[in-house]
Amino acid sequence: MPDESRCGAASPQPSQPYRIFWLIDTGHPLAVIFAITLGIALLSTAYAVSGTLLTELFPPRLRYSGVALGYNIAGALSGFLPFLALAMLSFSDGASWPAAAILAVVALITSVGGYFGGRLKIKDMDIIE
Q: 120 or 80, which is more confident?
């Protein structure tokens, strides 16, 4: 997979949370269903490349531990994001833009990680030789 596609999978995402929350804020049932479907589809594009990217960051003897550690640390850190979004929602008097901003920052971090992760990959043939 070309390095650019890893970053490209997440690059349009920082602007999408604002559109998604705007659709949800309309309160129209079809708009809400479309917004949730769009959000899940965008989330899937970031996960589509994560397995390949993470396995290429570690040499074969450390690969399983490295990927497991990466997933678990990310899960532990991202577990606090709903609480942060709820706190920001209460501080903004119910406006949805703070939650969208959190998702935009996460998408931006994903884009940067995809960009640099593609350049840090380890080729198994380099290790064998």
A: 80
Residue keyed to tokens 């604002």: 18
List Cβ neighbours of 20 (8 Å cut-off, separation of 6 or more). 35, 38, 39, 100
Could you give the 3-state DSSP secondary structure of residue 97?
helix
Token digits of residue 9: 């999978």
Tokens 């931006």, residue located? 108
Q: Could you tell me the residue ranges of all domains in the chain?
A: 3-128
Write out pLDDT tens, residues 42-101.
Answer: 878 777 777 777 888 888 888 888 888 888 888 898 889 889 989 998 999 888 899 889
114: Cβ contacts below 8 Å, ≥ 6 apart: 6, 7, 8, 9, 10, 49, 53
What H or E segment, with its residue span, contains residue 119? Answer: helix 97-119
pTM of the model: 0.71
SS3 of residue 45 by DSSP = helix
Q: Residue 70 in contact with residue 77, Cβ under 8 Å?
A: no
Residue 55, SS3 per DSSP: helix
- Whether the Cβ atoms of residue 94 and residue 4 lie closer than 8 Å to each other: no
